[in-house]
């Protein structure tokens, strides 16, 4: 029991340390990303988030979320969102397919003036690289969330030889180490305890908090959702949906 408690504490300490590091080292970029989100809302643009595999968890955490911006939509690539596809390894294989991101974007509601958040821990696979690259050719602003360390420790899997970070208007560095495992043990042959989901979600929620505050400071009421499990929450959300329905795509 003592060893288990120690391991839990070590992991939580590691995750807290990473969150504190992004708080301190990414503060200016978080502020800039929050402003970009707020600018998009004010200018009539739409908000989208994309991530493949486990990176999709942080993207989904932004969508239809109590306390979150109602305008954030999930850009889904069939078979690559989460691990619900069988076999689960198919999702990883799809991330390496050239041309898939272009087909998805060209079939999506994204248009010039919108904002797309692309989340990829490694930033090396064809899907996120092409997603960011093609989105910008469409006039879409791109915020990338990745571990910049991968660009020096791994090779790109995109035909251009580039990484996600090379095709973004802003890059948020999650500071996650290559391999995404925070703990080791003498009797365990592989590192374990990934922290990327915790850190990336915290980083993106910091951006959303910044955007909401920025909007309020401009005299614009942020289009925030309330919990449907508190009195009045559903009525509030219905009002937001009616006002911003033309920019919300998860209702149709």
Description:
By secondary structure, this protein is α/β, with parallel strands linked by helices. It has 9 helices and 7 strands, in the order ααβαβααβαβαβββαα. The strands form 2 sheets. The chain has a 5-stranded parallel sheet, sandwiched between helices. It has a two-stranded antiparallel ribbon with strand order 6-7. β4, α7 (150-153) and β5 (170-173) form a beta-alpha-beta unit. α2 (27-42) packs across α8 (196-217) and α5 (100-106) packs parallel to α6 (126-137). The longest helix is centred in the N-terminal third of the chain and has 24 residues, at 2-25. The protein is globular, with a radius of gyration of 19 Å. The chain starts with a helix and ends in an 8-residue tail after the last helix. Belongs to the UPF0309 family. Residues 37-221 form the SIS domain. InterPro entries: RpiR-like_SIS (IPR035472), SIS_dom (IPR001347), SIS_dom_sf (IPR046348), SIS_GmhA/DiaA_subfam (IPR050099), UPF0309 (IPR022951). Pfam families: SIS_2 (PF13580).
Q: Report the strand count.
A: 7
Tell me the helix content: 40-55%
Stretches where pLDDT is under 50 for at least 5 consecutive residues are none
* Order of neighbouring strands in the sheet with most strands: 2-1-3-4-5
The proportion of residues in beta strands is 5-15%
Distance between the termini: 49 Å
Organism: Streptomyces heilongjiangensis
Family: Belongs to the UPF0309 family.
Domain SIS: 37-221
Protein name: UPF0309 protein ACFQGO_07910
């Amino acid at each position: 029991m003592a060893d288990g408690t120690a391991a839990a504490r070590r992991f939580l300490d590691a995750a807290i340390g990473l969150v504190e590091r992004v708080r301190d080292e990414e503060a200016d970029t978080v502020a800039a990303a929050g402003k970009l989100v707020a600018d998009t809302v004010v200018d009539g643009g739409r908000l989208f988030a994309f991530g493949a595999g486990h990176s999709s968890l942080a993207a989904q955490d932004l969508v239809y979320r109590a306390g979150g911006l109602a305008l954030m939509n999930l850009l889904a690539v069939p078979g690559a969102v989460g691990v619900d596809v069988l076999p689960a390894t198919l999702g990883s294989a799809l991330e390496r397919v050239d041309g898939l991101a272009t087909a998805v974007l060209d079939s999506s509601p994204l248009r010039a003036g919108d904002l797309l958040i692309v989340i990829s821990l490694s930033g090396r696979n064809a899907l996120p690289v092409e997603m960011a690259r093609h989105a910008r050719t469409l006039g879409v602003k791109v915020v990338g969330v990745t571990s910049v360390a991968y660009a020096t420790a791994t090779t790109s899997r995109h035909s251009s030889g580039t990484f996600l970070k090379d095709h973004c208007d802003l890059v948020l560095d999650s500071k996650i180490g290559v391999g995404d495992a925070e703990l080791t043990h003498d009797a365990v042959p592989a590192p374990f305890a990934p922290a990327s989901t915790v850190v990336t979600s915290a980083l993106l929620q910091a951006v959303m908090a910044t955007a909401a505050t920025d909007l309020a400071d401009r005299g614009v009421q942020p289009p925030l959702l309330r919990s449907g499990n508190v009195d009045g929450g559903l009525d509030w959300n219905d009002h937001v949906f009616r006002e911003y329905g033309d920019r919300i795509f998860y209702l149709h």
